[in-house]
Write a structure and sequence with these properties.
The chain has 121 residues and is α+β, with helices and mostly antiparallel strands. It is 29% helix and 33% strand. The chain has a single domain, classed as NigD-like N-terminal OB domain (OB fold (Dihydrolipoamide Acetyltransferase, E2P), Beta Barrel). It starts with a helix and ends with a strand.
């Protein structure tokens, strides 16, 4: 009876640690543009020409993402439950910015807890 219980506990601990993955993230700084990921992924829309649409979609509830200069897409995620992941990005939709934050990757997707946004000069 002892061995099956030990086996179940071991499997649970290993499974739980695999699900959690790297919870700390890696802090990086990227140059890019806050975008509406729905329009970017489906139609390639971005930049100043898409600013009004992206702002309207964001106000209606669409979360933002950051399109890095290298083409990588980072979804903006909250760092603290109940906070908006878009609050620092929304004023800069359609413009180039320098964004610093903690990046997490899972299943081929990238996400960033945004810590600082600076307009590019």
């Amino acid at each position: 009876m002892f061995k099956p219980i030990s086996l179940v506990i071991s499997i649970f601990i290993i499974s739980f640690s695999l699900v959690l993955g790297d919870e700390k993230g890696t802090t990086i700084t990227i140059i890019g543009e806050p975008i509406d990921p729905a329009c970017y992924i489906t139609m390639g829309s971005k930049g100043i020409d898409h600013k009004a649409c992206a702002e309207a979609c964001n106000k209606a509830g669409q979360s933002l993402a950051i399109l890095a200069n290298d083409g990588s897409l980072y979804f903006a995620i909250e760092g603290v439950p109940g906070t908006s992941p878009d609050s620092m990005l929304a004023p800069f939709i359609g413009t180039k910015v320098k964004v610093t934050g903690k990046v997490f990757e899972r299943g081929g997707s990238k996400a960033m807890v945004v810590e600082k946004v600076e307009p590019m000069k």
